[in-house]
Design brief:
By secondary structure, this protein is mostly helical. The protein has a domain of about 130 residues. Helix content is about 75%, strand content about 0%. The protein has ten helices and no strands. The longest helix has 24 residues.
Length: about 200
């Protein structure tokens, strides 16, 4: 997306979570983004197109943050902590803070299978980045990495729905973290230590 479309999408996300999808018009999005209404329609034919673009933009943003924050971590535990932060804690806190995030999730569930797959695969790419240095070890245990990525994505989605608060979210994630770190507890070679 070009910078103008990113601004439109980010404006739409902000308005949707604040006021709801139903109560936010394309004209309001255009005005708030500082563009003409026709500019919005030229890029996004409908609210569904805009929601898809917004969800994909957020998925890319999350993936980029995970990749950036994993740099220099050679052990799985800290890499899983980065994944947990960006794919569980941050979205969970947003869901608590903004009353209309659930409505966006309903729209997300009603996207075409093709669009849902694009978003899901972006998150799976983030999970793949976290676990990629451990793929040979994962295969040594007769586990197909792609299936593990699917499981991790589904598990992170589910615990966000079930958690009562961030501490409960951590408790729900801890068994999978312990299982994976105990199973694959070998540092990655050829990476520089993480600097804080």
């Amino acid at each position: 997306m070009n910078e103008r479309n990113i601004k439109i999408v980010e404006t739409a996300i902000r308005l949707f979570v604040q006021y709801s999808v139903a109560k936010t018009s394309m004209a309001e999005i255009a005005e708030e983004a500082g563009v003409a209404r026709q500019t919005v329609y030229n890029s996004f034919e409908s609210k569904e197109d805009l929601i898809f673009a917004a969800l994909l933009h957020y998925a890319d943003y999350t993936k980029n943050n995970i990749e950036l924050d994993c740099k220099g971590f050679t052990e799985l535990g800290p890499r899983l902590d980065v994944l947990f932060k960006h794919m569980a804690v941050v979205p969970f806190e947003a869901m608590q803070k903004f009353p209309h995030v659930d409505e966006i999730m309903v729209f997300a569930e009603n996207l075409s299978e093709e669009r849902k797959a694009i978003i899901k695969n972006t998150y799976k790419d983030a999970i793949r980045h976290v676990l990629l240095p451990f793929e040979s070890q994962i295969r040594d245990f007769k586990i197909e990495p792609e299936r593990l990525y699917d499981l991790m994505k589904a598990m992170l989605t589910q615990i966000k729905r079930e958690a009562k608060d961030v501490e409960n979210l951590r408790q729900l994630f801890e068994p999978i973290r312990l299982l994976l770190t105990n199973l694959l507890n070998t540092p990655i070679q050829n990476e520089t230590p993480h600097e804080n």
